[in-house]
UniProtKB/TrEMBL annotation:
GO terms for cellular component: membrane. InterPro entries: LSM_dom_sf (IPR010920), MscS_beta-dom_sf (IPR023408), MscS_channel_2nd (IPR006685). PANTHER family: MECHANOSENSITIVE ION CHANNEL PROTEIN 1, MITOCHONDRIAL-RELATED, YNAI-RELATED MECHANOSENSITIVE ION CHANNEL. One of its GO terms (molecular function) is mechanosensitive monoatomic ion channel activity. The keyword Transmembrane applies. Residues 31-106 form the Mechanosensitive ion channel MscS domain. Keywords: Membrane, Transmembrane, Transmembrane helix. This is Mechanosensitive ion channel protein MscS. The keyword Zinc does not apply. It holds the Pfam family MS_channel_2nd. It is found in: Membrane. It comes from Nitritalea halalkaliphila LW7. Gene3D superfamilies: 2.30.30.60.
Length: 234
């Protein structure tokens, strides 16, 4: 009887030890298992694939590699104030797909809406300026209309993505410093900076040639006061 009690006690101790050991191993390997689950999720649900431009949390870039425990991005943005590569490769744990929201620039619809603004003085001919900006956008975007329309039809069929219109538009608003004209148009996310540069150059050339349209910029005024020395008379 004594031997049986000792055996049972030892067995319970071993069971407790193994239970604690298993719990410790599970905690220690938790990240590995979650990363593996993330890898399965990426390959099964396909939230992104190699070649896609994505943003996960605060990190943005082009997916260049998918592995068992992490995926790699060619970083875009960060200190480069535009959608262009920094040259760095960022390795992201697969577990991030369960913790961070993901934005995919390449899936569903291959174009994004982009906006540029120009500020005019209150005495500018804003109607004329609006027509000129719209003409610039229409000329720049015309070659992409067929591609955009085809991509939009596919997106509507596959993911119910739809827009009221896909052609450029110019919006007007009154600000403290003057009249803001905002140009809104669809563009390829990988070509956004180059396209914006081309549009900006054309806008400056066109508006500066108009005597009744004046572009305004933020101006700061510094006022200096000089104190007079105290009078020595009397």
């Amino acid at each position: 009887m004594l031997i049986g009690n000792i055996w049972i006690t030892n067995f319970q101790s071993i069971t407790t030890f193994l239970g604690l050991l298993s719990a410790g191993i599970a905690i220690a390997l938790k990240d590995i298992f979650v990363n593996l689950a993330g890898w399965l999720f990426i390959y099964w649900k396909k939230p992104f694939d190699v070649g896609d431009r994505i943003q996960i949390g605060s990190i943005k870039g082009d997916v260049v590699d998918l592995r068992l425990f992490q995926f790699s991005l060619l970083e875009v943005g960060n200190w480069v104030d535009a959608d262009q590569a920094t040259g760095r490769i960022v390795h992201v744990p697969n577990a991030k797909v369960f913790m961070e929201a993901q934005a995919n620039y390449s899936q569903g619809f291959n174009y994004i809406w982009h906006e540029q603004s120009v500020m005019l003085s209150l005495d500018s001919d804003f109607k004329k300026a609006k027509e000129l900006l719209l003409a610039i956008l229409q000329a720049k975007c015309q070659s992409e209309y067929k591609n955009i329309e085809a991509a939009l039809l596919r997106a509507h069929k596959d993911q119910l993505i739809s827009f009221g219109h896909f052609t450029p538009i110019v919006y007007l608003s009154i600000q403290e410093r003057g009249i803001r004209l905002t140009m809104r148009y669809l563009c390829d996310p990988r070509k956004r900076r180059g396209f914006e540069d081309s549009v900006s150059e054309q806008v400056l050339q066109t508006l500066r040639a108009q005597p009744d349209i004046r572009i305004v910029y933020p101006i700061s005024t510094v006022q200096l006061e000089q104190k007079m020395p105290p009078s020595t008379n009397g």
